[in-house]
Amino acid sequence: MNSAPETTNTPAATPGPATANSAVAAAATVITNIASLVTNDPSLGDGSPLGLIQDAAVVIDGDRVVWVGESSKAPATDNRVDAGGRAVIPGFVDSHSHLVFAGDRTAEFNARMSGRAYTAGGIRTTVAATRAATDEALEANLTRHLAEALRQGTTTFETKSGYGLTVEDEARALRIAARHTEEVTYLGAHIVSPDYADDPAAYVALVTGEMLDACAPYARWVDVFCEKGAFDGDQARAILTAGQAKGLIPRVHANQLSYGPGVQLAVELDAASADHCTHLTDADVDALANGRTVATLLPGAEFSTRAEWPDARRLLDAGVTVALSTDCNPGSSYTSSVPFCIALAVRDMRMTPDEALWSATAGGAAALRRTDIGHLSPGARADLTILDAPSHVHLAYRPGVPLVREVWRKGERVS
Ligand SMILES: [Zn+2]
């Protein structure tokens, strides 16, 4: 079984989208007997955005996908995995989470869901617990949540600082996060630090000065919560442009709780993503449709706060690129489950099952400006999930059911 028919003369796989199948080494692994394979490559399979192939196989060599196609045409390889008539999808790309924190906010959630007024400090509660935690405790908590996300099919995640709000505590959060992901976001501008409650301008100066200097070496992105009660448009612009001057790329918490300047500022500064997008004017939608900023929807937040859903259909119908992520954080969206967010997006935000799956994989990759993940074309990183279901539609059709059977990351079975 060592003869490996070569399907093309394409040289070794290279990162990024490719349309031709690459040469297959015998030592590769074929996953075969896949009932339906989502490639997210419209040039493959049925020609839809999901690039769906029925009765499919995937060949993995090293950390890359090197061949996809119909099972009957799969090249021979040394290693064979039988998917047993299940569906295979790209690993989820969770492009928005807040996982460096300590403590939890059970009491706040319980009060909110029990109809009682809750006035204690929200984010400040987590800031106090995070500052008091040791490095080891913060990292153990992060690792625990990452393992939880991985078991649910997330193979790439972004995460932020924002619960330290001092130079030392923000830099510490990013240093810890950078040990676990390359998608690290500096969010010193989560809220005005309680230490600067009487002088927000001084806090903005810190965030754009000494704190930025300490944090930039660990981060790829700069973010700001642009919202009434957090940072206004002028402050957000100062924070994002200061980050850009240090080589960070903007992303923005925009238009979550109210209308405001966040989305249009994000597009103006060519931010990778405007996140939440719950309260949008027509001008906001137009700006997103005409720019390259992705709209990242985070329905776990609306679910957990009983808030109004973002209007996904309006964005999709306008041609905006939409990502779907968890916003996993202890206050407003304490879920690490992308499948749960897909079910909400389909049931309550009226995304189709295909759109929701695309947004949670290729959309997340677009929000992180990555071309090597979020799809399963030859050349892509071999990040994929075998579902305990014959089709990706089951993620919404069977909400709450643990359908993630096997997770592969960088070509290795990890869960
Ligand atoms: Zn967030």
Reported for the largest beta sheet, the result is:
7 strands, mixed
Using the coordinates shown, work out and report the CATH topology of the largest domain.
TIM Barrel
Envelope shape: globular
State the helix count: 14
Alpha carbon gyration radius: 22 Å
CATH second-level architecture of the largest domain: Alpha-Beta Barrel
| Cross-sheet strand order for the largest sheet | 3-2-1-4-14-15-16
The proportion of residues forming helix, as a percent range, comes to 25-40%
Taking pLDDT < 50 over at least 5 consecutive residues as the criterion, the unreliable ranges are: 1-20
Beta-strand residue fraction: 15-25%
Q: Please tell me the total number of domains.
A: 2
Distance between the termini: 28 Å
The number of E-state strands comes to 16
